[in-house]
Amino acid sequence: MSDDGDVPEPDSESTEPDSEPAPRRRSRRRRILFWVAMVTGLALVAGVGAVWLGYQRLNRNITTDTTTETLLGPPSARPTVAPIAYDAENILIIGSDTRAGADSSYGDPDGGARSDTTILLHLSQDRTHAVAVSIPRDAMVHIPSCQLPDGGHTGATFAQFNWAYSYGGTACTIRTVENLTKVRIDHFMVIDFSGFKKMVNAVGGVEVCLAKPVADRDAKLYLPAGRQTVNGTQALGFVRVRETIGDGSDTERMGRQQQFLSSLMQKAESDGVLLNPAKLFPLLDAATSAITVDPGLNTVSKLYSLASSLKSMPADQLVLLTAPREPYVNDHNRDQFQQPQADELFQQIRDDRPIGLTGSASPTSGPTPTSGASTGSDPRSPAFSGRTANQDICSSS
């Protein structure tokens, strides 16, 4: 500063930013802000576009069955719903054993399809409890006359439960379940073999533990004894095999199937799959491509809405069990529903009452409901503990 207080003139050769005229600085800042806004906007649009495209792909994956509802006939021909259970949901989950297309390696592709697994899932009106009941595929039941897509009808017959699917598909299976249980089915979901394998692979496999080695040619399953992680193909064999794991009964297999599904869900939760979009999308892609559903569940948003309604339900309030059964009197290789236990169970579901937890029961004394990742009614069933299949049997061997 000079002696007289005047501010000295700036050096004409100065290259400091302050030497730039104010209008030029404002113009440059506007250009920078413009390009930042453009890049940010493009990134946002790209992100939203990717989400939108992914959402559309998942929706396209889902196969909608619009025929079954028509074949079931008017509401008056189906079970009524008690007022107390108006907002409860009953979903029939069917695992089809079709050998067509991608599943042709599992048997004769011209051999027809039957319901390899059927689970009646009841969600309470207030979503505080739920029960999943496996229907024995070998149970001898009365299969009612069913309407076919071509306008014909099947004849009423007494046969194994899983033949209902072979005779008349999903509609005939629903009609048979409703006839047996007097429970109105609100929604259905049919899952195929290939989709199940993809889901297991999408979570990086699921851990099982075997007390003994397994070598089963029919199920294409060859596993050593001990704890191990199975991939999709091995997992499919694991849930389908009968003779070479456990006691060879279908009841034991149903318990194993329920347990494996619980372990699959827990694996997705424990590995952070549900919170990682890169991991979650392959799982959702596999799951949606595996299912055929009614119009009430045929979009991601509808499925998400149903799942969201369960977020407040305690994990230990999901009870997994097998319908009360016993050897069929005329053929001990087949089952029949045990009475009055079966009727009492289905009455509880119709009344939307929680299924009480009990202790162990014999294989022929009815259901042994347990909570969470649980077993079926047979105490000899392999047990899943936490996220590990058959952990109890393996750890004790």
Automatic annotation (TrEMBL):
InterPro entries per record: LytR/CpsA/Psr_CW_biosynth, LytR_CpsA_psr
Acidic residues composition-biased segments: 1-19
Location of the Cell envelope-related transcriptional attenuator domain: 114-269
Transmembrane segments: 32-55
Annotated Low complexity bias: 358-377
Pfam family, one: LytR_cpsA_psr
Keywords from the UniProt entry: Membrane, Transmembrane, Transmembrane helix
Disordered: annotated span: 1-26, 351-397
Comp. bias regions, Polar residues: 387-397
Family under the similarity heading: Belongs to the LytR/CpsA/Psr (LCP) family.
Record-given protein name: LCP family protein
